[in-house]
Design goal:
alpha+beta
């Protein structure tokens, strides 16, 4: 069954709410959210998605890095479902790089993010997972994690001159 949902756009209240924890990985509701996230992300050129982006205020994200026209240099990573994720920075080192968002189409901005992080989450088998992420994948994780706390990437812009129309970004930087 195809469960593609419309992506919530900037201004939708769900994008500014703190999402609720998942209490039962195997519940029908949780399984429906997972299927919706997988199907919706697969229908886009995105490299990640969070449940609030499909108007579901629950703490589930998918990180699924892959090269595309939106992110031609993205490394390949199988779609990974992360339930109730958390992270800590492994150093104070941050790097500014370009981000976009399915919920804010047509815009790119330079956003500072931690380069090296350690993440924890529950997988689809209700098993705890701990791993370290670096670079682009760490950036995608932090971007999606922000959605769970009601933060969008534009909230992290340090200078308004770091915001570009996506058409200008592609002309200038790719």
């Amino acid at each position: 069954m195809n469960t593609i949902k419309e992506i919530a756009q900037l201004g939708a209240p769900v994008l500014r709410q703190r999402a609720d924890k998942i209490t039962d990985v195997f519940s029908e509701e949780t399984q429906e959210i997972i299927n919706t996230l997988k199907d919706t992300l697969a229908s886009t050129l995105g490299v990640g998605i969070a449940a609030p982006q499909v108007s579901i205020s629950k703490r589930i994200i998918i990180v699924a890095s892959r090269p595309s026209t939106r992110y031609p240099h993205a490394p390949l990573m199988e779609p990974t479902i992360m339930i109730n994720p958390s992270f800590v920075a492994l150093s104070s080192d941050k790097e500014k790089d370009w981000e976009g968002c399915l919920s804010i189409p047509g815009i790119r901005a330079l956003i500072p993010r931690y380069i090296h992080i350690e993440i924890n989450y529950t997988d689809i088998d209700a098993q705890p997972v701990n791993m370290q992420l670096n670079g682009f994948i760490a950036r995608v994780f932090q971007h999606e994690f922000d959605h769970l706390d009601g933060t969008v990437y534009l909230d992290r812009v340090e200078n308004n001159k770091d915001i570009f129309a996506e058409s200008e970004y592609f002309k200038t930087f790719l």
